[in-house]
Design brief:
The radius of gyration is 15 Å and the shape is globular. Helix 1 runs parallel beside helix 5 and helix 3 packs parallel to helix 4. It is built from five helices and eight strands, in the order βαββαβαβββαβα. It has a six-stranded parallel beta sheet with strand order 3-2-1-4-5-8. The protein has a two-stranded antiparallel sheet with strand order 6-7. The N and C termini lie close together (10 Å). The protein is 34% helix and 23% strand. InterPro entries: Isochorismatase-like_dom, Isochorismatase-like_hydrls, Isochorismatase-like_sf. This is Isochorismatase family protein.
Length: 186
């Protein structure tokens, strides 16, 4: 039997409409993340929250100790759910994430969160490189418009490009509904 863990990446206040760095579709993505979170809790599977804080007080978002850097109320951790504090895109870098996964004998990660093109991408690629099996719940992830060389790239295209890339070589990429159907059948 595969030991799985849900990794909730940076579902934090600053990414929501009243925050400093709002993402496109973040509320809908968080609602899908909540559905997956509830399934993991009901099954008694491991849940690990990732929370990003920049180290500089003048950071554009996720400033140290700020309300914007707190986990969003939709996904607050329960007492038995650790919160990994990170300062880099890759949640494994200079954190205890890998130790927490090893303590729980986890071999399969299910990833939800923000931003699709940064921290979700970073943790998924690192996890796959470390030998974990990874599933990304695409509709439980959010991002924002980007700019490259004077061209605005809409959030939907950014998200699709990164999900396509992850699905090509690093993870299984499925919707929350598809994932939850397999959990009920298991």
């Amino acid at each position: 039997m595969t030991q799985q863990a849900l990794i909730l990446v940076d579902i934090q206040n600053d990414y929501f409409p009243q925050g400093k760095w709002p993402l496109n579709g973040v509320d809908a993505a968080a609602d899908k993340a909540v559905q997956v979170l509830q399934a993991f809790r009901q099954a008694g599977d491991s849940v690990i929250h990732i929370r990003h804080e920049f180290t500089a007080d003048d950071a554009p978002f996720f400033a140290p100790g700020s309300e914007g850097a707190h986990l969003h109320p939709k996904v607050l951790n329960q007492d038995d759910e650790p919160v990994v504090l990170k300062h880099f895109v890759n949640a494994f870098r200079e954190t205890n994430l890998r130790m927490l996964l090893e303590q729980r004998s986890v071999t399969h990660l299910v990833v939800v969160g923000s931003m699709s093109h940064m921290c979700v991408d970073g943790v998924v690629r690192a996890a796959a490189d470390m030998g974990y099996t990874v599933t990304v719940i695409h509709d439980a992830c959010a991002t924002r418009d980007l700019e490259f060389n004077g061209t605005t790239v809409p959030a939907a295209q950014v998200h699709a490009a990164f999900m396509s890339s992850l699905g090509f070589a690093y993870a299984s990429v499925v919707s929350a509904d598809e994932f939850l159907k397999t959990q009920v059948a298991a």
